[in-house]
């Protein structure tokens, strides 16, 4: 069973930065790709970024591609999301999750991921 715990959210002004962390544990976490998603009030949860276990490959949502960077430290079993040039539209609860199957690499669908964390709130003020 994989367990994921997000942290690092908070309140930041537009143009600022935050780094989110996703700490993973559990025997089946090893070797699995990890993704970040977000859900704004009244909206569906949407894909943000994902990274393969080795850290060598990543993919992003177009809305964050040039501003956010996903990385991982497997020694610490932690995945990070560095968010720069934040905008009010980035306000959401951010979740991390593990990719169900390697064959789903590249998917942006919620259904392709499982073991969701509890989320961390990011609020960007204008």
Major sheet: size, sense and barrel closure?
A: 7 strands, mixed
Which geometry do the CA atoms define?
globular
- Count of alpha/pi helices: 0
Mean pLDDT: 94
Distance between the termini: 40 Å
- Following the backbone from N to C, one meets helices and strands in this order, namely EEEEEEEEEEE
Name its key features.
mainly beta, 48% strand, four-stranded antiparallel sheet, 126 residues, seven-stranded mixed sheet
Fold and architecture overview:
It contains no helices and eleven strands. By secondary structure, the chain is mostly beta strands. The strands form two sheets. Strands 2, 4, 5, 6, 9, 10 and 11 form a seven-stranded mixed beta sheet that branches. Strand 4 (34-39) and strand 5 form a beta hairpin. It is globular. The N and C termini lie far apart (40 Å). The relative contact order is 0.31. The mean pLDDT is 94.
Short summary of the structure?
With 126 residues, the protein is an all-beta fold. The protein is 0% helix and 48% strand.
SSE arrangement:
Layout: E1 3-7, E2 10-13, E3 18-25, E4 34-39, E5 46-51, E6 58-60, E7 68-73, E8 78-83, E9 92-99, E10 113-114, E11 120-125
């Amino acid at each position: 069973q994989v367990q994921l715990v997000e942290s690092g959210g908070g309140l930041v002004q537009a143009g600022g930065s935050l780094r989110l962390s996703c700490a993973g544990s559990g025997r089946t976490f090893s070797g699995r790709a990890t993704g970040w998603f977000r859900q704004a009030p009244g909206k569906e949860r949407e894909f943000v970024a994902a990274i393969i276990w080795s850290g060598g490959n990543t993919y992003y949502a177009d809305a964050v591609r040039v501003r956010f960077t996903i990385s991982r430290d497997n020694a610490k079993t932690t995945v990070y999301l560095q968010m720069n040039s934040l905008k009010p539209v980035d306000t959401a609860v951010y979740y991390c999750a593990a990719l169900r199957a390697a064959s789903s690499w590249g998917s942006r669908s919620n259904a392709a991921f499982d073991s969701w964390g509890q989320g961390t709130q990011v609020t960007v003020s204008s």
